[in-house]
Each structure stands twice: as C-alpha cells, then as structure tokens.
Amino acid sequence: MRPSAVRLLNILVPVKRAVDYAVKIRVNPEQTGIDLNVKHSMNPFDEIAVEEAVRIRERLKDAVKSIKVVTIGPPKSSETLRTALAMGADSAIHVEIPESAPSPEPLGVAKALKAIIERQSEGVDVVIMGKQAIDDDAGQTGQMLAGLMGWAQATFASKVDVDAAQKVAHVTREIDGGLEELRCRLPLVVTTDLRLNEPRYASLPNIMKAKKKPLEKLTPADLGIDFTPRLETIKVTEPPKRVGGGKVENVDQLLAKLKEAGITARRA
Amino acid sequence: MGKYHGQATTVLRPRTTQQVSDIVKFCASRRIGIVPQGGNTGLVGGSISLQKEIVLSLGAMNSVRSFDPVSGSLVADAGCILESLSDHIAPHNHIMPLDLGAKGSCQIGGNLSTNAGGLRLLRYGSLHGTVLGLEVVLPDGTVLDQLSTLRKDNTGYDLKQLFVGAEGTLGVITGVSILTPPAPQASNNIFLALPHFKNVLPLFQTAKRQLGEILSAFEYIDRTAYDMALEHDLGPILNPDEVGDAQCFVLVETSGGNHEHDMEKLNNLLESLMSADQPLIYTGTLSQSPAQFASIWALREGLTECVQKEGKPYKYDVSVPLADFQSVVDTVRERLISKGLYGDHAVSKVMGYGHVGDGNLHLNVIAKHGYRPELEAALEPFIYELVASHKGSVSAEHGIGSMKTSALRYSKDDVSIEWMRKIKQVFDPLNIMNPGKVLPSA
User: In this predicted complex, what is the ipTM?
Assistant: First the structure.
C-alpha cells in the first residue's frame, strides 16, 4: 500500500479575555452594562479549545505544524495569549484595540479572523474556538466564520478526531436529543463544548518557554476591519428580586390563595 | 471526628451580654460548671462538657456591632461566624486577619479564646497582635468591658491578652474588637514539587528574599499527603511525569496592591528557581485564573477532609524547627513499624503537612479501622517526648483542651504551670469556667 503524503496541519485557536466566571457581576449605575473593574481570565470554552489543539498535537505529533492563538482585545489581553502559549501554543497574534473601545461583536470578530487566516502564508486547516464567550453568550462567531470562509463547521464538539493524512475530522456534537457524529472535510471550524476535555495547568517549564515565543501585534487597520458596533444596548438590568413565599395554616387557606392567584381546577 | 463525646444535659443560648452575665452569676452561686462553646470546631476536646457542665453556646449572639472602613476596626458579637465576618467587610475591601479551614463554622469568640492561627498568620501575625479589645464575662458574672477600637493604649496591664488563648477557662468572651487589613488587589499562588525535603528551607529563604512583603502563605505537603489528595480527586494540578519522585510539595501565596508588581516578583522568583545550576524544584505551576487559584488552595485545604475519609485520625499539631519536619514524621512512622502497627490492619498512613512558614507541622496518623488504645499508647507520650527533645510545642495552634492537659508539661516548665494555676485561682476560685481544660488536675 502506498503511504499517503504527510499533510501538515496548521491550527488556529481564537481566544477571548472575559470577566472571570466566578466573579459576582454587578450592573453599572448607568445601566448600560456591567462593572468591568473585576477579575478577568481566558473564556473557559477557549481554554478547552487551546487544550484540544495541544492534545491533537500530542496524538498526531509531527503532523501538526503549528498552533497559533489569536485574540482581539485591549493591551491586557496579551496576558491571555501568554497563558495559551504556556499551555502549549507556538505563537500568538494580538489584534490590539483601545482599552476604552467597546467589545467587538461576533460578526466583526469573524471578519477579522477571516482576514488573519488569509494572511497566513501556510494557510489554516482547523480553527478550534469556544462555542460561546461567557460575557455575551452570543455563540455566533464560529458559525459566522465558517460561513464567511465557505468551510465546514462542527459546533458544540464533545469529541474531536483529526485524520491529517485523509484531511478529515470526526467530530461528536452535543445536541438536544443526545450526540451527533459528523465526518467533516478540512478546512474546518470546530467550536468546543464543556465535556470536550479538562484544560491543563500551565507548568513552570512551559511558562518560562512561553516568554520567548513570538507574539505579533496588529491593529484593526492592518486587517482592514472596522469594529464599530452595529448593535446598540439600550438597557441592562438585574433580574427582578425574588419575592418571599408565604405560609398557610391548612388546606382551605391553600385553596383560597390559589383561587386568588387565578389558579382554578379544570376538568380534563 | 467522633473522638469526643459530651455529657451535657443542658445547652443555653443567650442573646445578650447581660444574659450571659446573669447565667454566669447563677452558675457561680450554685457552683455549676460552664463550658463556653463557639462553632464547636476545635480539635482538642476543649468545647465539650466532661462532667455534665452546662454548655453555654454563643451562637445566638451573632451581630456585627460596628465597622470603621478607614481604620479597619471591626467590633462584633463573639458568636459571629468567621466567614460571615469576611463577607460583611468584603464590600469595604477589607479581609479578616485570619483564615482557616473551619471558617464556615467557627466563631470569632472561639478564635480569640484559642488564639487561632491558620493560613494567614505568616502575613498578618497572631490574634495577640490584631485584637484591639474584648468584652468578657468573668467567672463571677462581672462584665469586663475592654471593647476599645484604639490601636495604641498603654494604660496598665493588658488584661485582654490573658483571655486570648485561655480557651474559655478564665471567662466568657462576648464581644470582640479586631483590626482587619485591607484586601489585597492582586492574589496569586504557585504550587511546587521538590525533589527532597532538604530543599524546603532554602526555598523558603529564597521566597522570603525575592517576594518580600507580598509573601502571604507558605504551606508544606509531604508526598503521602499529596498522593492521598490525588486519590480523593483534589487535582491533578501537576503533570505526573514532571513530578516524578518528588518527596514534598510547597504552596506559596502572594498578596499585594499591584498586579504587575507582584507578577514581576513572581516571575523573577520562578526564573531563578528553574534556571539555577542545582534547581530546588522539579516543576510547578502558577495560577492563571481565579479558578486555578482556588483549586490550588483547595488541594491544601481539602487534606483535612480526606484524612477523615481515610479512617480515624490521630492529629498532632506541633511546632518544631523547620529542618526537622520530615524527620519527625519519619520517626513516628518507624515507631509504629517497630510496634507492628503500621499497615492496612492498623495505621494505614502517617503524613505531615502544615504552615511550614510558621514552623507548624500537622502530623496525621490515620487509624484505618478506628481508634484503639494500643495505637494511642504507641503514640503518646512518644510524640510529646519527641517534640520536647526538639524544644518544640506540643500544640502550635490547636490549644490544650482536654486532650493535652497531661502533655502541657512537655512544653512548659513547672514554674510556668504553677503561675498559670495562680492566675486561674485569681479569676476563677470556684473552678466553674470550663473545668478540666488546659491545666492538668493538681
């Protein structure tokens, strides 16, 4: 049997610096958003994406040529890139926007990622990204990117198996009814779900190595992208506070209260 | 732990200091013994009724009386739970000066009565330093009101210090005034695997020198404890290939006012550790998010619970020179082996972990199938004599309670004990206040 030519894979992992999931968020006094003066960290689904890229390399070894991470964010976002590099990515791209700028919207991000992919001289075979960011819960960017690129997409992945030689991937997706198995031709966009893997802690030797890995800085103008929001947030409020329940003494009182609330018996 | 069983038939839950005073007056007139009780989280049987004394629970006195966000002085009822106090002052960006595993249940009055130590002592000092004032009901019912919020007050003998660590034997603490430090703006921790125990001391010196004022905790976990933690799913945090045959582990926490400043100090420390000619560590990790920070601490804080799940623990909280930590654990293990008591049939594990930065070792001897007299006989007074030979303390932070009254003499000489008795006689001539605790019967 003739050995198939070794296909080298280039993996791109977009990551987002978001409010940490453990933070107790508060609506700001102007009711335009939440107080952002709190702890931030890498979006948990993106951590899973970075981990999956590193595991794919551990499985396929030399077949993976590069794992690049990219983020669009203020200067502090470079810390998130360093974490990804410490987990095992090779190089990073930081599309820097001003600290005061509003968070880019999914369509803007997808267009920027398309521009970045087109800039990669060796191309990109697989994009692995989180299924949604925990600050906006949009869940759109991966799908939009696949649409813009005309690529296959496998979202809410709970298992990913890449066959570099055949240039296909087998992905198991989490759907409402259970699990769906897809066979996708590369290039492919995968979005990660919670059960895909458990991300590793960055070990010290890797944290030291990460400092020397290349980090390229770009501006939105370099990509020809305008991140001006197309949506206007009118108001942000907390959900109404739960009103306490009441206690009743007996069944008659219970029936009276139910009638008051407009709940009456119905014949089947 | 199921080790101590109280004999009380009556529990009282007063709501005010006046009620406590009335109760104590009544008990004094009838010579009824009183056991003051806080969160009942003590580990030396100090809060149980031995001879049907009444239990005086402070749990219903749980209001915060005042908090000054400028000075950080907090005045609260003795029955306030430590974690509730933390939550109360958090919005003002302050933290309690102490933190321990029992924070969800222990009460501040009990913390003061036992001079509790914990994970933050390295940074914020002991309660003797952070207490500003106390309100105490004396054994005759008199209320001693020294509830001041003054930082400095050198007017006469500092009586409140007697009650800090007296374990309820000189009076009942009903109110506490304590100094709370500002909350750190940046917190990080690192978890390190060391090839041998003898690297712990140089590592500690290096960390102190390079981290300086941001060092806030330095905890030690031996290999036995680490393996046990992994078996109970408290991890994995480190790559097992990188850990290899590491003999012990260290958790270092930093707390400071500026994230960039702290990260620079931490990165310098890690660089110097990893690139040294003779590295002190095999590997380690630095928390990359609040979630990782919490789970690294969870491994250390979860050890006590794992120990309970493995069997019945004999716990020895001792102060010995840092350099002797491992040899103390090894000597105890060898003792049990020589008595044929080491193995799945009797003592399944002997381990050490603790506040190595304070010289405080928590030695845990796990009896897989329950407490047995021959196990206790093999351990006591052997361990106390071993600690005494190192000029250490038989109780670094847990106190004496009822468990260690006979061990007191291993760390305090006869002159000290005699003067402790005299003080007890002055305050409580009828011996109604937590009798049978701290001082051995004459």
Answer: 0.80
